[in-house]
Design brief:
This protein is mainly alpha-helical. Helices cover about 65% and strands about 0% of the residues. The longest helix is centred in the middle third of the chain and has 24 residues. The two termini are about 25 Å apart.
Length: about 325
């Protein structure tokens, strides 16, 4: 019954859009509802985000013509920047994957806007700025464009300059993890303020971005493994800390994926798997299941093949199975 209603909804929406204009807010609501069905559905067919990709181009065009004038528009713009960034490694769009500066103009539109969303925006994105998501996007595009030409290398260097200025040091650890003399019981549950949540989010994105950076600079599998190991250990400490605190945000799925691909011990894999499973209620069962399958491919190989770990980032077919 649900699948039948879903098919009717798509057909009806297509006919309506073809026959008459529709307000952007109405169209956005329809697209998001269809995407929610894809994320939380349990059908056997491979999920699709074609409807969201179609809406994305329309709304980005609108923002160029008409900059945001209220909080709702700003949140829409932030959502589009975020979504393009975190999906570009897995489900890239044709026009954006060839241009790592694709999001620059939209981040600039956001930056010059006098509208701010205060606490709501802070809690929605855990304090992360669109410029950080733009760095995620650039790294994802550049990783797919290897080997890089001079212009692309210059863009990568700009990202290298950006990260330490806007994200914490990639070796930052939770205070509880840094304090080796403190014994934590199994029932320990830290209470996180909004600032604590934001700091943890920034640290996770820092670790994940530097991991992708390391693989982009040194695509050979034997180089920079020590740095990647150090970065991933920091990420596991933060994920374990957030698990103890019971803080699970779908915004942190992207760094959890990158950090998880570098996992090499059972404990590390259990930590990242626990975090991704806990996101099923917010990110959707299909999303979390697709990530777990990618982990299995990275950790166990395919058909008894050798484990590839973080180098699965160079396997576009495997990455394309992730639906977030």
């Amino acid at each position: 019954m649900a699948l039948e209603c879903h098919s009717k909804a798509i057909s009806g929406l297509r006919r309506h859009l073809e026959s008459s204009p529709v307000q952007q807010e109405v169209a956005l609501c329809c697209m998001l509802l269809l995407h929610i069905f894809e994320k939380f559905g349990d059908g056997q067919q491979r999920p699709s985000d074609a409807h969201v990709k179609s809406a994305r181009g329309y709304f980005l065009h609108r923002f160029i013509q008409f900059p945001p004038t209220n909080m709702r528009h700003i949140l829409q713009l932030e959502s589009l920047i975020y979504r393009i960034a975190v999906t570009s490694l897995f489900q890239p769009r044709e026009e954006s994957i060839k241009d790592c500066a694709f999001l620059d103009k939209f981040v600039d539109i956001w930056a010059v806007s006098s509208i701010r969303c205060g606490l709501w925006r802070h809690s929605l994105w855990i304090g992360l700025q669109p410029s950080t998501f733009n760095a995620v996007f650039k790294l994802s595009v550049l990783l797919r464009r290897l080997p890089l030409n001079e212009l692309q290398l210059a863009e990568l260097e700009r990202v290298v300059e950006y990260l330490p200025q806007h994200l914490p040091p990639h070796r930052a650890l939770p205070l509880q993890s840094a304090d080796g003399d403190r014994e934590l019981g199994d029932d320990y549950r830290p209470t996180l303020t909004l600032d604590d949540q934001s700091h943890a989010a920034h640290c996770l994105f820092s670790s994940a971005c530097w991991i992708v950076m390391a693989k982009t600079w040194h695509s050979a599998t034997t180089q920079n493994q020590e740095l990647i190991r150090e970065l991933s250990l920091s990420g596991y400490c933060w994920l374990n800390y957030l698990i103890q605190a019971g803080f699970f945000s779908p915004v942190l799925l992207w760094p959890a994926i990158i950090i998880g691909l570098a996992a090499s011990t059972v404990e590390e894999r259990n930590t990242v798997t626990t975090y991704v499973h806990a996101l099923a209620h917010a990110s959707g069962l299909r999303a979390s299941a697709s990530v777990i399958r990618l982990f299995k491919t990275a950790w166990e190989g395919v058909n008894g093949g050798e484990s590839v770990g973080i180098d699965v980032l160079f396997d576009s077919e495997a990455l394309a199975t992730v639906f977030i």
